[in-house]
């Protein structure tokens, strides 16, 4: 099972989902509660109403997996980066539940960036953009300085090293 599971984080995510939905979740492990995608679709519809139009409450595995795919599409539109979204099989086939939990944690974090969402949030507050503007004079003031990231080596060189393959003489 890839990814070490963090039970405290799973509990925190489940509590956040319960708070957002405003109703208790069915008992059980997180993978059992979320597996059919119904809770996930209801969750994104609370955060962004109308995100998922069709939710299959019962049906074949394929139909239930479509719920998860609709949820994934909706959270991508909501602003979650593609690389933070779990794969359908991670949840449905219980392959990587820790990735599912991290995706939901990220969703809770992204919800803070949406001013229309005033409900419960998850995780630390996200930083706001902090743009700085410099005058032309301030920018020019740094031009004469040697940037240490550019490989300034205070006169050290490889002279006297000999050649490739030689041992270093001390």
TrEMBL record:
Belongs to the calponin family. Signal peptide: none annotated. GO terms for molecular function: actin filament binding. GO terms for biological process: actin filament organization. It comes from the Eukaryota. Residues 7-112 form the Calponin-homology (CH) domain. It comes from Allacma fusca. This is Calponin-homology (CH) domain-containing protein. Transmembrane segments: none annotated. GO terms for cellular component: actin cytoskeleton. PANTHER family: CALPONIN, GH21596P. Pfam families: Calponin, CH. InterPro entries: Calponin-like, Calponin_repeat, CH_dom.
